[in-house]
Amino acid sequence: MPGGIPMTHTTLPTAGMPDIASVAALDRAVRVAARTLARAGLAHAYGHCSARIDDAHFVVCAARPMGLIGVGETGTVVPIDGPLPEGVLGEVRLHQQIYRARPEIGAVARTMPSKTMSLSTLRRTPRALHGPGTYFAPGVPLWDDPQLIRSDEQAAAVVACMGTNAAVVMRGNGAVVAADTLEAMVALTWYLEDAARVDLDVLALEGKFAAAVLDDAQCRARATRSGRIIERMWEYLSAGDPELSGAHATCATHATHAANVPSTS
C-alpha cells in the first residue's frame, strides 16, 4: 500500500456474528467515511467513526488519524455491550453508548471541527441561521466539560446530554454526530461545522444587527432529505476517494442494519 503504511487487522465475525463478507463491505464504507471526514477538515490527528453491524456489534475505523487510513486498512468489530477490544481508542465507548441507547442510529462520528470548537469555548453551539443548522433543531446540546471521555459513566452522561439530537458539542473538545446511515452522518457533521461557521460570522456583527434565527416551524420545513440532499452532499465530500468508483460511489450501508432504521432528521 502507498507509503508502506502497516495495516491493522479487524476482529472478523465468528460463530453467532454476521458473515465476514457483510462486515468487510461495511468496513470499507467506514474507511471511506473516515477519509472523507478528514479531507473535509472535520478531523485531524484525533477522531473516529463507525457503523452499526447489527443489534450487538459495530465496526470502528482503525485507531489512527482518519486521513491516513489506507485502502484496505481494516477496523475493529466492537460489541455494543461489553469491554472495548484491545487497541480500540477509549472514546469509542461513546459510540457504544449511542448504539445502545438509540436503535435508530446506524453510524457515529467523533470529530474535531474547528469552528464548532471555537464556538463551544463561548459555551455556545450553532444556531439555526441557515439551512444546515436546521437539522439540529431545537438546538445542539452542549456537554460543558473539556475533559476527554475515559469511562463508561462519562460516555453515558454525554449521550444522555445528547438525547435524541443528531449531535452533541463538547466544550473545547469537538463533537459527536449520529445518524441512520454513514452518508447522513458525514453530511450532518459537515452541516454542524457550517452552522458554526455562519454563527461565528454573525456573532461579530450582532452588536449592530439582530440575527434572523429560524423558528421551529421553519426548521421542520427546511430540515428535509428530499431532492437527494444527503446523497448530493455525500457525493461532493467523498469524491475522489480511492475506494469509490462507479457502482461503489455510494456507501454500502444499504446492506446493513442502517438501511432499516428511520431518518434522524
From TrEMBL:
Domain Class II aldolase/adducin N-terminal: 28-200
Classification via SUPFAM superfamilies: AraD/HMP-PK domain-like
Gene Ontology MF annotations: aldehyde-lyase activity; metal ion binding
SMART domains: Aldolase_II
Pfam families, per the entry: Aldolase_II (PF00596)
TM spans (from-to): none
One cellular component term from this protein's GO annotations in UniProt: cytosol
UniProt keyword terms in alphabetical order: Lyase, Metal-binding
Domain of life of the organism encoding this protein: Bacteria
An example Gene Ontology biological process: pentose catabolic process
UniProt KW Metal-binding keyword: yes
Stated name of the protein: Aldolase
Source organism: Pandoraea captiosa
